[in-house]
Amino acid sequence: MTELWRLTLVEAGQGLRKKEFSALELVEACLERLKATEPLVDACLTVLEEPARRRAAELDAAGWDPQKPLWGLPLTLKDVFCLSGAPTTAGSRILEGWKPPYEATVVKRLKQAGAIIVAKTNCDEFAMGSSTEFSAFKPTKNPWNLQRVPGGSSGGAAASVAARQTPGAFGTDTGGSIRQPAALCGCVGLKPTYGRVSRYGIVAYGSSFDQAGPLARSAADCALLLAATAGPDGLDSTASLHPVDDYVGAAEKKPGELTLGLPRELWEGDFAPETGQTLDEAKRRLTAAGVKLKELSLPSLRFSVAAYYVLASAEASTNLARYDGVRYGRRAPGPEDLRDLYVRSRTEGLGPEVRRRILLGTFVLSSGYYDAYFRKAAQVRRLIQQDWQAALQRCDLLLAPVSSVQAWPLGAFIDDPLTTYQLDMMTLPLNLAGGPGLSLPAGLGADGLPVGVQLLGRAFDEAALLAAGRTLERLLPPVGEPPLAA
Amino acid sequence: MVDLEAVIGLEIHAQLKTKTKLFCACPLDSGAEPNTNICEVCAGQPGALPRLNAKAVELAAKAGLALGCQVNASSLFARKNYTYPDLPNGFQTSQVDPPICLGGVLEIAAPDGPKTVRLNRIHLEDDAGKCVHDEKRGKTLVDLNRAGTPLIEIVTEPDLSSSAEAVTFLKKLHELLVDLEVTEGRLEEGEFRCDVNVSLRPKGASRLGVRSEVKNLNSFRFVGQAIDSEIRRQTGLYRDGEPVLQETLHFDSASCATRTLRSKEEAHDYRYFPQPDLPPVQVDEALLAALKASLPAGRELTRERLAGLGLGEEQIRLLLDRRGAVEHFDQTVAAGGEPKRVAGLMAELFLPACAKAELSPASAVFGPAGLAALATLLDEDQLGRRAAFVIFDELFSTGDDPRDLARRRGLLQISDAGALADLAAEVLADHPAEVEKYRLGQEKILGFLIGQLMRRSGGAADPKGAGRILSDLIKAGQ
Amino acid sequence: MGVDAAAAAALARLVRLELGGGGAGDEALKLIEDFGKIVGYMDILEQADVAGVEPLYSPMIEPLPPRADEPREPGEPSAAESLLAEAPERVGRFFAVPKIL
Question: Which of A384, A399, A428 is nearest to A261 (CA)?
Answer without folding.
Answer: A399
